[in-house]
Amino acid sequence: YALARRRFRGRRLLLGTLALPMVIPHPVAGIGLLLFLGRNTPIGRVLAGFGLEVVNTPLGVIAAMLFVSAPIFIDQARVAFQAVDPVLERAGRSLGDTHFQVLRRITLPLALRGIVSGAVLTWARAVSEFGAIVILTYNPKVASTYIYDRFTVSGLNGAIPAAVLLLLVALGVLVLLSTLAPSDAE
What we know:
By secondary structure, the chain is mostly helical. The protein has helices at 2-5, 11-23, 26-37, 42-49, 58-83, 86-94, 99-127, 131-136, 143-154, 156-180. The protein starts with a helix and ends in a 6-residue tail after the last helix.
């Protein structure tokens, strides 16, 4: 919301930094996460003190997926909030609503379709991630590493069933997105 409504010093730098995971090769993202969250790093040791391991754990899968896909959600949410007419928000404030009430009653409902669409795209991008995951967390297997493993062990015939299943999931996501997108009649 702040990225959509506020102008502040360093905003462009922040937007560029948030977009970085979308433009760097994803194995490089995995290496960066490994150097940042690995067992022998300062942050990795702090996490280990809380009983949290990142490398080769489901938490590592989540970290890799979140790192490469969160920029999509942030950008989609920013665009959705920008699309809400500030006049409507000012009208709510002029009628006595607090900033939070305007956000809850006016801004979020009007931006919700774009936010949900961004969430679905983010999920789809996360599910398809391979490069960062294979570096940070080869095991436990997720769909992309499982398909790669099946291909390297059994060849094309071994990878096809899982690839077709993932393709069907992707198709389902596209159908869902098409239902969320505004139609030409609206």
